[in-house]
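debug: dumping io for the single-chain case to check the tokenizer round-trip. Nothing else runs in this session.
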Amino acid sequence: MDLPCVQWQDHVAQKWSRLDPARKQCFTSLLEIDDVFQFGLTQTNQGDVDLLSSISKTKAQLVQKDPEKAAISRERGNSCFKTRDYTGAALHYSQGVCFAPQSSEQLSLCYANRSAALCHLHCYQESLDDIDRAMAFGYPSHLQYKLQDRRVQCQSYLSWSQSGKPDYPEPNSGDTRGTGDTTYVKPANESIHNGIDPPGISQGVAVSFSPEKGRHLVATERIARGQVILEDRPYSCVLIPWTEEMRKNERRTETKERGLFGTEDRHCHRCLRETLCPVPCEGCSCSRYCSRECLQEAWEEHHRWECPLGAPLMALGVMSQLALRVTLKAGLKGVQSAREPVKDGNSSYKPVTEPGTECSITGTSYDSINIQPSSVHYGDSYSSVYHLLHHLDGHGASLRFLCAVTAAMLYVTLSRTGPPPVPWDLEASSSVTNSQSQGPEAEGGSVGWSPDLWLLGSVVLRHLLQLRCNAQAISMLQDAGVTNSVVQSSHEVRIATAIFPTLSLLNHSCSPNTSLAFSLGAGAQTSLSHSVRSGPDASSHASERIDRFNSSARGVAITVRASKDIALGQEILHCYGPHRNRMAMCERRRLLQEQYYFLCTCESCVQQQEEVEEKTAGSRQGSGASGLHCAKCKGSLKKCEVQEGVKYVCAQPSCGQHISSSEVSRRLQEVRKHLEKAVDLMERDRPDEALRLLQRTTVSQSALILTESHPLQGEVADAMARAHATMGDWTSAASQLQRSAVAIHSQYGEDSIEMSRQLFKLAQLHFNGGAVGAALSVIPRARRLLCLHCGPQCPELHELQAMEDCLQG
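debug: decoded output
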């Protein structure tokens, strides 16, 4: 998904193995990105081009227009429409819109049918837009009366809603393709105003530098938990397409509409907003957008050059596409400016150390350390992106070779598709220096491509290496389970990969003092309250930042809040993935070393290392709470090392009960197997069977050793709560969820974001069960934690407020 496909990786690995030792040694000794790229370019030949073309054939069907596929999608949409599944119908019609060529009748038919589905979902303006598109693309004249009738209906509904009518009128029941229901469904592209200020670092936070930590953020005043520390927008991002394996992991059958559609079908490919009515690219079937504005902006910024490379880009992976996208957006002038030596003076950044200084603690540092004013760190700051540490000497030789050949192949493929990208057109830009113009010309490149443009490929390679350490996953909560279930569970899914210049300033901790929250909604022009520069030029810098913010206001944004009280002078930290509550110290350190090339010495790792050493010095003594208890006396089990290996021994001296480590593993695997089977039964609308299986599991010998605080016991209780809720037994569901909350509290802590989600679900169950007092006692706790981690505008807070108003009223 992130790396190139397996076939390409194997091909490049074979190329590497065939290199003679002298050439390998030459490549390994290269210390400059430009030299590494040139080496990769010399290793690229027609055979590589042919292989990539062969690999891309299997992916071409996903990006090419196809009227037959459009017709199939439209028929599937009609089937959903007849069963009143208007959301599924809209998604299928949208798929048809994307597959339909511009000149085909299928395009107008899909737009027309989608307008009907959107009308039933009360998306009246979107329905009107689709009616206009259907007419513009040649909807059959003998059927146009249907569209005209629907247009009148939608305009009437809009006028009624704007006049203050509280309820939406029903669509015309005379529509032969289905009737509306009485439930109001929020339009898919309706978003809550987030009130995000222009991105930047808040007052009370400063950029600092040390040789050990590199560039990092520190508190210049006390920061209370919940306070916003920084807001940022990505310089660029790429939506992650779902693979067959990802679809399989969703545990949904193909008869459910959510099993047929992935993130690429539901989100704008530029700003990532979720939408049921995307506007497709006219040249390919895979890129789609929430509006004409997003389509046009993406086309000008990168897609006009990506569009003909759709299948090869899919084969070369998300990271390659993101590296190319960043490079195209920066343009030749942006790259030249970033590569220029840093100048002294008030308008430039002053270096505080020599270029090449590496951070021994963090993975997201800079290779040219210049202390910059806080106000320059926002999503459109290419200089901040360019100078992120690329770890050229940290990557293994074979990985460097893979990246070099991949970047070279991107450059060669792009050069063969047509004229140079406008931002890289040498006729419109100053030429690069003579020393930069000695790179080899791409074999078979287009006539319009100057040899000087090899720099484009070199910059792609630079960003490709940087992204391994600096890419940020954009995730969101997504509903899980069947679409007609009474109760919906949710899980976090990764929808995109991005590069955030400001966020990259934060160093890692396995126990961070910050929480990250993503927003996919529309932005708004607001007052500038963060990162305001002082001095005579403050207003011009503020205006520049507001302009930059508003130009990308529809895009994704990230807000970092303090999850703990942060003292004056304390460093601000966030977690790169391995968290102490989810992973053992040794595993965390291994993963961080492999990906970010540093040995983690955060407070949690140091503390846990000391505990390990103390236990080792204790010579085979019990290792404390294990989340397991003795099946005989209910005392706690402790993990001990004996000559025969590892075993669990009861902490009660009078008991003497013990159990082998292998037996514990077998029992836990049995519980896990039953849990997975129960979840699968619920996905297939068989909650009663799932509940019986889980009840047998909780009283079996396998589960007797699980304490209430064990994570697996928490998962079992959570699944039982979902089964009870699906069958309408809200009281039992709430009781089981409270048991699950005990495990969540033990594993993640009282103030964790995981606890906030558990309390939110508990409030829903109490509300649905009519337990007024219990619900009113849980809602404030859930509100406090959600506000702490996600901010005051998160949708769950609005739902909690609605529940509270209803209960108090």
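debug: round-trip ok. The two ends are 50 Å apart (CA to CA).
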